[in-house]
Design a protein that fits this description.
Layout lengths: L1 H43 L2 E4 L5 H5 L8 E10 L2 E10 L1 H10 L7 E2 L26 E8 L2 E8 L6 E9 L1
Antiparallel strand pairs: 1-2, 2-3, 3-7, 4-5, 5-6, 6-7
Length: 170
C-alpha cells in the first residue's frame, strides 16, 4: 500500500510540475506574442513629420513659387507611400504656372473640393489644414508618374489665393 501512495504522490507531483511549466511557457508565449504585435503595429503606423518650405523641391520635384507666403507642410509616410499636405498663399498668376509644372493640364473646376475630410491629416493639432472652411473655391485632381495630386484653391480673396495641395506618392 505504501508504494501505491508513493506512486500516486509521484504522479501528482509530476502533474503539478508539468502544470507549472505549462503555465510558465504559456505566459512566455503570450509575452512574446504581445511584443511581436507591438513591433508590427509600430511598423504599420504612419510616421508624421513637418515639412519645411525649403524642402518642398525634395518632395515634389519643384520649389514653391518664391512669391508664395504662409507656408505649412506635413508628411505622412506608411511603408512605400507618402501623403503630403501643403498650404500656402499665392497670387492667381503665379499659381497657374506652378500647377502646370506639377502636371495639371485642365483648369480648376469651380466649386470642386477633391480633399474630402477622409483625406485630411489625422493629426488634430494641424489647425492650418481647413479646406472645408472656404466659401468660394475651385479644385482639381490629376495623376502624373504614379503621383496623385489634389488641389483646392480658396478664391475668396481675388488677389491672394489660399492653396491646399495634397500629394500621394507610391
Amino acid at each position: 500500500m505504501r508504494t501505491h501512495i508513493s506512486k500516486r504522490r509521484f504522479i501528482l507531483r509530476g502533474a503539478l510540475i508539468g502544470l507549472i511549466i505549462g503555465v510558465a511557457l504559456f505566459g512566455i508565449g503570450l509575452f512574446l506574442l504581445q511584443k511581436a504585435v507591438v513591433s508590427v503595429a509600430s511598423v504599420m503606423q504612419a510616421a508624421t513629420s513637418t515639412i519645411k518650405r525649403t524642402d518642398v523641391k525634395n518632395y515634389i520635384g519643384f520649389p514653391l513659387p518664391v512669391e508664395a507666403t504662409n507656408f505649412h507642410g506635413m508628411e505622412d509616410a506608411l511603408l512605400q507611400s507618402r501623403i503630403l499636405h501643403f498650404k500656402f498663399q499665392s497670387s492667381p498668376k503665379i499659381l497657374d504656372s506652378f500647377l502646370k509644372q506639377l502636371g495639371l493640364k485642365d483648369s480648376l473646376k469651380e466649386g470642386f473640393n477633391p480633399l474630402p475630410e477622409s483625406n485630411s491629416p489625422q493629426n488634430t493639432e494641424l489647425s492650418w489644414w481647413d479646406p472645408k472652411d472656404s466659401a468660394h473655391f475651385a479644385g482639381a485632381s490629376w495623376a502624373k508618374s504614379e503621383t496623385f495630386y489634389d488641389v483646392m484653391v480658396d478664391m475668396t480673396d481675388a488677389e491672394s489665393y489660399i492653396v491646399y495641395l495634397g500629394v500621394e506618392q507610391n
